[in-house]
Design goal:
globular, eight-stranded mixed beta sheet, 8 strands, alpha+beta
Length: 215
């Protein structure tokens, strides 16, 4: 009688691997996708050229949900992985503050202003999504921005929504990018800074939209 157990093991292993790959491919194909935007109402350069940045204030409300789930698309407002496990609200706040400061550094006028940012969404890629073999994904960074006179508190620009959504990279494209020193943090920071500069009319208009698989 022939023992078939040895010959069945590789087949069973391959079958399980194929099933896992099939599930991964199905999950990617079923991911939320659509049109994403970088969108804002560009301010008048005649107004902003008189402003000088005095302070940036960033609020990341504790009411926003956070996910540490090791999945492709966690259902949460904040998804962030590149900093060590810790207070994601504080981590996101520091990223946004640095990016907004950089974007607004061209304000060199005489009237000091305070820019107040409230984050409404900060959804980057999980490592599970980044390591997938497909080039897909979106960094969803949305926030409101308000401008006040630093001396009087007068509201110069009421709180307005800014969408700073940009394509994420994954698979081999992101692996190669990381070898060159590119990270999710650098991609998000650069895009937020360029978006803020465009909104303030002290840099190129950064508005645009794109279609992509992701969330």
């Amino acid at each position: 009688m022939t023992d078939t157990r040895r010959s069945e093991r590789p087949i069973m292993f391959l079958s399980r691997r194929a099933a896992l790959l099939g599930i991964s491919a199905f999950a990617l194909s079923a991911c939320v996708g659509g049109t994403f935007k970088t969108e804002y109402q560009r301010l008048s350069p005649e107004v902003t050229r008189n402003w000088r940045l005095a302070e940036v204030r960033v609020d990341v409300p504790r009411s926003l949900t956070v996910s540490e789930a090791k999945t492709l698309l966690p259902n949460a407002d904040i998804v962030w992985r590149e900093d060590p496990m810790g207070d994601r609200y504080t981590q996101v706040g520091k990223i946004m503050e640095a990016a907004v400061l950089r974007g607004a550094q061209g304000l060199r006028g005489s009237r000091p202003v305070v820019i107040s940012i409230t984050v409404t969404r900060f959804h980057a890629l999980t490592y599970e999504a980044e390591l997938s073999n497909s080039d897909w994904g979106v960094h969803n960074i949305d926030f409101t921005a308000q401008v006040n006179d630093a001396r009087t508190g007068e509201v110069l620009v009421p709180a307005t929504l800014i969408r700073a959504e940009t394509p994420a990279w994954s698979g081999e494209r992101m692996r190669e990018a990381r070898r060159r020193g590119v990270t999710q943090k650098s991609m998000i920071s650069n895009h937020v800074a360029a978006t803020v500069a465009g909104w303030l009319a002290i840099g190129p208009d950064n508005r645009g939209e794109f279609s992509r698989q992701g969330n």
